[in-house]
Amino acid sequence: MPPVKLCITTFLCALSFAAETTALIDLDFTKPLTPPANVNIQGGKFDKGWLVTAGLDRIFIDLRRDIRSGYVEVTVTRGHSPVFEKRKRNWLGLSASPTMNQAPGGYARAGGDGYGFSKAEIFAASQSNTICEKKFGEATDWPSDSTTPITVRATIQSNVMTWTHAKGAPASCGGNDQPVTHFRYVAAGGILDETNGWHHGALIGLKILRLRVVEVP
After folding, report:
1. For the whole prediction, is pTM greater than 0.70?
2. Is residue 9 in some structural domain?
3. Which of 22, 96, 122, 161 is the most exposed place for a label (fewest CB within 10 A)?
């Protein structure tokens, strides 16, 4: 019976797709929402998205277990152009440590002329210092008109971390010799480590429209 066979096949395909990826976090900030208990929103302003308005603003997520294959994807807009001063601005990070500055992991950084908007810094599990710093996208790929959505994805999979932007070339580092093994914590808007005094300030003018954390088998 072809119709029944088609129905069963479609059902099995749906199950297969569901098994391929698991959305652990899916936050649409353009709509009213109540964040889950493991998502902490500090400061900022809700205005058709979550807007960074001060230096200590951030969204902090504890996934409560290590993710060895998955990605974080954010869609944002930029307001006024960030001041490219000596002080760096780390605006999105994945880490195995809640302090967000210990390996393995990585973050996207804006700031001084050497960093532009935006450069990825990536840390391997085998060493505490940065294994690479790479730009992903040119300045013209990051409009600051407060309306153009920009989607960035940071992936950790097979011991490699990759940052991608719709228009820019990907930035990747890692591998078996310098493995970027996993992440548990996510910070967006700004990355803080008040305990150790490691803080470069949130990226004021950044508005987060959507944030997703997805696990991939």
Report:
1. yes
2. no
3. 22
Q: Indicate which CATH number applies to the domain containing 196.
A: 2.60.120.200
> In degrees, to the nearest 5, what angle opens at C-alpha 142 toward C-alphas 96 and 78?
80
User: How many domains does the chain fold into?
Assistant: 1
The helix/strand/coil state of 208 is: strand
Per the structure, the complete domain to which residue 42 belongs is given by 22-215
Neighbours of 17 (CB within 10 A): 9
**pLDDT at res. 82:** 55
118: Cα separation from own chain's centroid: 12
Summarised one tens digit per residue, pLDDT across range 128-164 is 667 788 888 777 777 888 999 999 999 999 999 999 9
Task: Locate 58 and state its tokens.
Answer: 């951030």
* Residue at 159 is within a domain: yes
What count of residues does the chain have? 217
**Structural domain includes residue 80:** yes
List the chain residues with pLDDT less than 50: 1-19, 84
- Report the phi/psi class of residue 212: left, alpha or beta, with left for phi > 0 and alpha for psi in -120 to 50: beta
Sorted by sequence, the CB contacts under 8 Å of residue 192 that are 6+ apart come out as: 56, 58, 60, 100, 199
Query: For 160-185, what is each residue's pLDDT tens digit?
Result: 999 998 776 788 889 988 899 999 99
Instruction: Tell me the DSSP string of 111-147.
Output: -STTT-EEEEEEE-TT-SSEEEEEE-S-GGGS--SS-
